[in-house]
Design a protein that fits this description.
This is Translation initiation factor IF-2. GO terms for molecular function: GTP binding; GTPase activity; translation initiation factor activity. It is found in: Cytoplasm. Keywords: Cytoplasm, GTP-binding, Initiation factor, Nucleotide-binding, Protein biosynthesis. Belongs to the TRAFAC class translation factor GTPase superfamily. Classic translation factor GTPase family. IF-2 subfamily. It is globular and about 80 Å long. Helix 9 links the parallel strand 8 and strand 9. With about 475 residues, it is α/β, with parallel strands linked by helices. It is about 35% helix and about 25% strand. The longest helix has 21 residues. The chain contains 16 helices and 22 strands. Bound molecules: guanosine-5'-diphosphate (GDP). Guanosine-5'-diphosphate (GDP) binds next to helix 5.
Length: about 475
């Protein structure tokens, strides 16, 4: 636990320069941006006549989320679905086509609003919510911030193209998150479509569809010709039955941010997905390090709504600042409480930035390995040729034991991309580059998120380092 001089001064309602002077008197040569550890901060504050109450996360955020739900409170809720797949395989077309299957929208004649998520009503109490930012970057970014909103991933694979690099990435992201996949084999209307090749190719990625004896559902569709969309929807509903998706609607709402933006006239606008409880107009919420009062809510058809239950995406107005996708929100009892938590989180964020913790280094990984029960080391590997990647994965497999093992989240041929880093971040993993480098976006993302990228050109060096981490012997000076 640390605090900056500036922050400490602010909390004692004194100027930072005065605190710096005070610290200098005590023999500490520091600037306003320097960080003090908790003990030092307490000492100097007490010297200055302040009663010190150390506030930990547990104190401020205690009680957030409230009591656990009982089985009797739980009601079925619609599944939340994200569509992933290679570029041009038809993600956007499929999202648009699915959206048009809504039975109610047709009647009401509402105007489609792109708020980041939409819900289709299929009649008979059957509903499905889709996140309409396709692709794995958004999905994993949300996961990295703590949101686990997606229940099911639709992996779109064009039947005339089969598995491509971003298909592979999507599979890795889905697996890392532990979210079940339904394969949508798209473009089956094309003359050169070969759905069976897709099914066979998927075996290499340990995805065994039902017709190949596995338990992953696959559905042939054409987004363009709107063929078999109901088949895909049936598959989604079946999968969600298996998942027994339930939530208690009768409690203060909590959930996650899907999108946030600043609107010139309306201020902060954010799309929220309620995970449990019911969000109501007038509710006071804390969201990430922002807070606000829900002034207005509207849905993806542009209709004003007063309430939003689980898995019903709504756009809300009334926040003091723009939250980030993946930030979680909680409805709280008062503005004072919302403000307290938001300010606490802002402080925490600043302190984190100031401490600039180096994130996921191999050394920290080792410390984690020593702490945690499950001694598993996640890792992302990119290499120049498939052969060397296979050799590395094989060697890592061999050194895994019952107590410690390497979990390869993703491998791929080619340079390290932003997507690789985001995937690593979400699982606290380092990225290994074997004879490949990271591009600019990837380096920036790694810098921002503290993900460690390590480069190797000799397999044995790489294996040695990982072995050292696994056996808890890595020299901290490395
Ligand atoms: P995305 O990049 O994955 O979002 O792919 P798009 O939805 O933008 O589709 C890429 C291209 O494939 C567009 O020209 C679509 O019209 C076309 N496309 C999408 N689905 C189908 C389909 O089922 N059949 C055929 N023939 N073309 C399709």
């Amino acid at each position: 636990e640390t605090i900056t001089v500036q922050e400490l001064a602010a909390r004692m309602s004194m100027r930072a320069v005065d605190l710096v002077k005070e610290l200098m008197k005590q023999g500490q040569m520091v600037t306003a941006n320097a960080t003090l550890d908790a003990d030092t901060a307490q000492l100097v504050a007490e010297d200055l006549g302040h009663a010190v109450k150390r506030v930990s996360e547990a104190d401020v955020e205690e009680g957030l989320g409230g009591a656990a739900d009982t089985d009797a409170d739980m009601k079925s809720r619609p599944p939340v679905v994200t569509i992933m797949g290679h570029v041009d395989h038809g993600k956007t077309s499929l999202l648009d086509a699915l959206r048009q299957t809504d039975v109610v929208a047709g009647e009401a004649g509402g105007i489609t609003q792109h708020i980041g998520a939409y819900q289709v009503d299929l009649g008979n109490e059957r509903k499905i919510t889709f996140l309409d930012t396709p692709g794995h970057a958004a999905f994993t970014q949300m996961r990295a911030r703590g949101a686990k909103v997606t229940d099911i991933i639709i992996l779109v694979v064009a039947a005339d193209d089969s598995i491509m690099p971003q298909t592979e990435e999507a599979i890795s992201h889905a697996k890392a998150a532990g979210v079940p996949i339904i394969v949508a084999i798209n473009k089956v209307d094309k003359p050169d479509a070969d759905p069976n090749k897709v099914r066979t190719d998927l075996l290499q990625y340990e995805i065994q569809v039902e017709s190949m004896g596995g338990d992953v559902q696959d559905v042939e569709v054409s987004a363009l010709k709107k063929m078999n969309l109901d088949g895909l929807q049936e598959a989604i509903l079946l999968q969600s039955e298996l998942l027994e998706l339930k939530a208690n609607p009768d409690r203060p709402a909590e959930g996650a941010v899907v999108e946030g933006r600043l609107d010139k006239g309306r201020g902060a606008v954010a799309t929220m997905l309620v995970e449990r409880g019911t969000l109501k107009r007038g509710d006071i919420m804390v969201v990430g390090s922002e807070w606000g009062k829900v002034r207005a809510m509207s849905d993806d058809k542009g209709a004003q709504v007063k309430e939003a239950g689980p898995a019903y995406p709504v756009e809300i107005l009334g926040l003091n600042g723009v939250p980030e996708p993946g930030d979680t929100f909680h409805v709280v009892e008062s503005e004072a409480r919302a403000r307290e938590i938001a300010e606490f989180r802002q402080r925490q964020r600043r302190e984190k930035a100031a401490a600039k913790s180096s994130g996921t280094s191999l050394e920290q990984m080792m410390a984690q390995l020593q702490d945690s029960e499950i001694k598993e080391m996640p890792i992302v590997i990119k290499g120049d040729v498939q052969g060397s990647i296979e050799a590395i994965v094989g060697a890592l497999d061999k050194m895994s034991t019952d107590e410690v093992r390497v979990r390869v989240l993703h491998t791929g041929v080619g340079g390290i991309s932003e997507s690789d880093v985001i995937l690593a971040e979400a699982s606290n993993a380092p990225v290994i580059g074997f004879n490949v480098r990271a591009n600019k976006q990837a380096r920036d993302e790694a810098e921002r998120s503290g993900v460690e990228i390590r480069y190797y050109s000799v397999i044995y060096d790489l294996i040695d380092d990982i072995k050292a981490v696994l056996s808890g012997m890595l020299d901290p000076e490395l």
